[in-house]
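My main concern about presentation is that the manuscript never shows what a single data entry looks like. In essence, backbone conformation is discretised, so a fold becomes a row of integers matching the chain in length. An entry of this sort, consisting of the sequence and the corresponding backbone structure tokens, reads as follows:
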Amino acid sequence: MIIHNLETENSILNQFISEIRDSGIQKDTMRFRRNIERIGEVLGYELSKTLEYTSKTIKTPLGTKEISVPEKGLVLCSILRAGLPLHQGLLNYFDTAENAFISAYRNHPKGKDDFEVVVNYLASPSLENKTLLLADPMLATGKTLENTINAMKNHGEPKQIHIISVIGSAEGVEYIKDVFPENTHLWIAAIDKELSNRGYIIPGLGDSGDLSFGKKL
């Protein structure tokens, strides 16, 4: 796996990450969603540098100009519900991409620390020979991404996979290395060292879905 950890260099991304981690600023749910969206835009821009391009002739009012533009064939898939703001940030840049959505949630039997990731909804176009952008804001244990890619296998084999995450754990990153093809790219804004007993990233930021859309039952 090819890992692009953007926290290794200082940029305006630091400001967005600091705000989504800040427990005081988090109370502003609209700002939290917007910051996740802006992080998606930054990660999408960096990702765009590795895509395949083709030359196109553009006609202007005063002449013509050859410009390299990204080739078509992108599928943007986000994991509901936490992935929606990140999805929008990526869609702001890849506005011609096809879209896919999958629901995946943690099931803690009897409230115990151990959990399983349950997938019960998937809407996706064909992935055959396309470039899959897989957006999941919190890469904790890596099991959600594993179950997601397994659920999508019946939709064809993509030629390239890019995983886009906001914050991940070192353990989760190591875990998905064995799940995805070696040429998979991971674009991530920060990697934290620890996981709690319940599989949450420390220090992380909490539950991204709850912070974006309110607490669930």
Summary: The two ends are 36 Å apart (CA to CA).
